[in-house]
Amino acid sequence: MATFEVELPHTEAECLAALVDQARNPETLPKLVWGCRAGTHVGWGTLEAANENAARQLISRVLRDKAKVTPVETFTAGQIKERSVGAGLTCLPTWIRSDESSQRDGQLLAA
Ligand SMILES: [Zn+2]
After folding, report:
1. Which residues contact 93 (CB under 8 A, 6 or more apart)?
2. I need a labelling partner for 36 at 20 to 30 A (CA). Which of 43, 52, 88, 100 fits?
3. Sequence spans of domains, the chain
């Protein structure tokens, strides 16, 4: 399984039909949040699926074609440090850049 961030833009005219159709999928519905009442007709959510196509199948047919589906992942501080060293980034916080970060974390836990 992979994690996908979905963005579901729609018009005010499409809104009710999209929500009614999405309500037919009771497992996915609580994983989505909507800006409709604030006047921003967009839904957002984080869905687990085998692949992008499977993630799209969880989305209302009214919204599916315009949906933006992006595979996403989390990074640990160690992974960020690893990538920053290779790229020569210098804008990272000292605790990530420092070779002593694990020691500092240990001190924070002990404090
Ligand atoms: Zn809406």
Report:
1. none
2. 52
3. 2-72, 77-110
Burial class (CB in 10 A: 0-12, 13-18, 19+), 45: buried
Rounded to 5°, the CA angle 32-35-37 comes to: 120
* CA 19 – ligand 1 centroid, Å: 7
Q: Half-sphere exposure of 38 toward its Cβ, with a 13 Å CA cutoff?
A: 6
Q: Is the pLDDT of residue 86 over 50?
A: yes
Q: What residue spans of 2-64 are helical by DSSP H?
A: 12-22, 52-57, 61-64
Model pTM score: 0.75
Q: How far is the CA of 82 from the centre of ligand 1 (A)?
A: 41
